[in-house]
Design a protein that fits this description.
Shape: globular
Order of helices and strands: HHEEEHHEEHHEEEEEEEEEEEEE
Helix content: 10-25%
Distance between the termini: 78 Å
CATH architecture of the largest domain: Distorted Sandwich
CATH topology of the largest domain: Glucose Permease (Domain IIA)
Radius of gyration: 28 Å
Number of domains: 3
Largest sheet: 10 strands, antiparallel
Low-confidence stretches: 1-59
Structural class: alpha+beta
Number of strands: 18
CATH class of the largest domain: Mainly Beta
Length: 321
Amino acid sequence: MAINRYVTHAVALLIAAVLSGYSVSSYPRTANGPIDARAADAGETVGEVSMGRDATIIKPVYIPIAPLPNRAPIYYTVKAGDTVMGIAKTLGVPFREITWSNPGLRVPLAAGKVLRLPPVPGFVVEVRKGDSLASVAATYGLDPVTIVDFNRVRDPLKPGSMLVIPIDPAVGPNLSSGVPADPVKPGQLVCPIPGAAIIQKFGPTAFALEPPYDGYLHFHTGVDIIAGYGTPIAAASGGIVTAVGAANYFGIRVEITDSYGLVEIYAHMSEVSVALGQLVQQGDKVGLVGSTGLSIGSHLHLQLEVGGAPSDPMPLLGCST
């Protein structure tokens, strides 16, 4: 009977705490040092905890008060004039997560196209025929439990269904090998030549060697970073090498499709240090500075492509401007 009375008393206290709006922080702090049984018998106060024969010490209990995040993908229908950057700003979703969730995305965006967006930091992936929890997790270097816990699914996965893959923004995505793609600065492009100066920025230019683009007679489609011949070039972001070798005015170049589906092109190189299909982490050496292709001196041309179109890669963490 005494045990039942103590349990009833404990439950009553807990209910009263919840109804009165108590938070975890409002619970008494645990007293420092040992608690004397004689003090409890006498009904004394130890620290901030009142003791007595009929009292029950209740440990702080976490009571969630914030609603759980929506676990379903968000769908957005593109309107005339929409841009990836504009949608990202309006909806508060990083543009890298938009490109990551919509592989094959092309810009300019076509009105009526439906984009899928993650409800939490991460990305959305479509289940394909033959996919399993293990294979999807391995593609992104994840533990399958991450997918199961958030989506509440199990094998066999249904082709055509959507999975939300959450990530920790402070850590960023993993390569399929399981290592962090961007160990230097998650979600940020870092300077391929730390401390080097940018001598030409992205956009329209009067420099006659630059080809026409986007209605301009001369347009610089990336940024130029000055460096001596043979200077090592590091990956601005982690991903997979999707092209290597000579390419028109780029000269010798390396193309890396990063973990967010963006493409970085490293041009005018003298030497390549990676192979097609190789996984690279942010900061890994990809080659050496040169002056191949349409170039009038040793430097690195770094070009960022979003949805197949050149975009400004700035800011580059660690470059001098």
